[in-house]
User: Fold this.
Amino acid sequence: MSLTLYYHPLASFCHKVLIALYENETPFDASLVDLLDPAEAARFAEMWPAGKMPVLRDSDRDVVVPETSVIIEYLDRHYPGSHPLIPSDGNAALQARLWDRFFDLYIHVPMQKIVTDTLRANGENDHRGVADARATLATAYAMADRHFSANAFAGGPAFSLADCAAAPALFYAGIVEPFADRHPHLSAYFERLLERPSMRRVLAEAQPYFHMFPYKDLMPTRFLAAG
Assistant:
C-alpha cells in the first residue's frame, strides 16, 4: 500500500489526520510508534528528526509528509476522496485554514501544555504556564462559541480540515478544562462532531489506551465504555 501513517492511537494530533483519512475512506497502513522505546524513537527520528507524530509516508511518490495540516492538504491534493477537506472556493479555503490554525494553536496547544505539565517531576512544574494555558482556552472557548452560534462547522457549512483539527482538540481540552456548561453553541458543535463515524472510529481505537492519559479520572464515562 502506498500510504503509511506513523502514529499513536492516543495522540491527539494523530487523531486529526486519522479523522481525515476515515472521512474519505482513504486506504493506508497504520504503523504504531512507541517513542518510549529508544530503538523505535531512533528509527522514527531518521525519517523525521523533529520527532513529532504523525508523519505520512507515501512510497509511490517517495515522499515523507510531516505536520497535520500539511498531511491533510497533501491527501486532498494527491489522494482526493468524495469529501474534499479543503474547499475549492478560495475564500472558503482561507476560512478552513484559519479555523484549523485556531483550533491547533489556541485549543490544542494549551491543552497539551496542561496535560504535559502533570508529567513533570516534582519541583519542575510550570504553574504560570499552566495558568496562561487555561486563560488561553477560556478566550478560545468564548470565541468559538460565538462562531458556532451561526455556523454548523468550523470552516463554514461543510465539514473540512478545520473540523478535523477541532474534534481531537475539543475532546481532550473538554476534559482538562470543561466548556459544556458555559458555551452551549460550542458544546452542540462538539456533539455534532461526535456523531460522525470518523470520530467514533478514532475514539474506539483510542479507548484501550485511555488509561495512559494523565487526566483519565476526569474523562466522562461515556468515552470509557468499550465498543
